[in-house]
Amino acid sequence: MPRSIDNLLDDARASLERVTVDRLDDELATGALLVDTRPIEQRERDGEIPDAVVIDRNVLEWRLDPQSTHKIEETSYDRKVILFCDEGYASSLAAATLRELGLDATDLVGGYQAWLTR
What residue spans of 1-118 are helical by DSSP H? Predict the structure, then answer.
């Protein structure tokens, strides 16, 4: 039987130690990199989290893979990466993919909307 997106999401989240909004500041204070994967339309409509690095979802792996010729300067195997999308679904899937590349990646529970209503 084919798997559903819910199965895929459950498996992705089982591999993550997800960060709650109330723990975010502590994670950032210890050097975690916060990455906003939302499309520009959502960022323009809803705003941004200060100091988050914006990386579009379609180039995320290339920008964060420390071995990629297209990586950003801030990426490292030794630095925790916390992704967020609008509500914390796509970011869970993306974080699981980054973990397959060897990164210490996770995501923000509830995404930007949880941060906005904290």
Answer: 5-14, 21-29, 40-46, 60-64, 90-100, 111-116
